[in-house]
Amino acid sequence: MKRKMILISVLVAAVLSAGVSFLPGSAQAANSYVGTATCAGCHDKEYANFSKFAKKAHSDRSIKVMAKKLTPEEVKECYACHTTGYGQPGGFESFEKTPDLAHAGCEVCHGPGSAHVDAGGTKALIKGKGRMNVKECEKCHSSERVSNFRFKPMLYGGAH
Fold this sequence. Notes:
The protein is mainly α. It is built from ten helices and no strands. The chain is globular.
C-alpha cells in the first residue's frame, strides 16, 4: 500500500510539473504559489537560514532602490529574477497585490507549493534535490548577468 501511495505521489508530481491537468481550470490553479512564509511552518531551520543569509530573501529591496532610475518596462524585467512567479498564474503581480511573493523565495527554485502543502508536505509534489534543473537557475544567473551585476551565482544562497 505504501509503495502504491508513493507511486501515485510521483505520478501526480510529474503531471503537475508538466503543466497537465485533468481538473477544470489550469494546472497552475491546482498548484499555485503560497509564499515563503508558508514554508516556514514545516521548514523552520531552512526558513531561518534563508531569511538571515540569502540575498534572495530581500531581493525586492533592489527593485525598490533602482525603480526611480528605470522605466516601468525595465522594472518589469527586474521582477522576473527578483520576485516569485512573476508572469506565471498566481505569481507576483505587484508589491501591493502580492507582497508575500515580492522577493525571490523558496518557490523560485522549488516550484509552486500549494499541492505540496495541501498534501501534507508530500516530497514528490515539490522540486527538491535531484529534480532541480540548472537551466532554470541560468534564467537569472546567466553569464551576462553575472558579469553586468558582478555577483557570483549561488546554488543555495544561504537557504540550505
